[in-house]
Write a structure and sequence with these properties.
This protein is α+β, with helices and mostly antiparallel strands. It is built from 2 helices and 4 strands.
Length: 77
């Protein structure tokens, strides 16, 4: 299953609503990408499965600072 290594984001339940307003359960999948991210504190690349939202925040804050918010140690990856 698609899951973010940092935030733990997974698929969510939602409703498909037809024209006649009949609601049917469906899944909303997260956009998970596998990326090699440079971590200057470790001096190496780390391969992570992250959502595109995570990638935007990693660009702004840095990989180690963003992982620290969620209590994740990047040295395990």
């Amino acid at each position: 299953m698609a899951k973010s290594d940092i935030t733990g984001a997974r698929r969510k339940t939602a409703n498909h609503v037809s024209h006649s307003n009949i609601k049917t359960k469906r899944w909303q999948h997260v956009n998970v990408q596998t990326r090699r991210i440079w971590v200057p504190e470790l001096g190496r690349f780390v391969t992570l499965s992250v959502t595109t939202r995570d990638l935007r925040n990693i660009d702004k804050l840095g990989a180690s600072a963003y992982a620290k918010r969620f209590g994740i140690q990047l040295s395990k990856f």
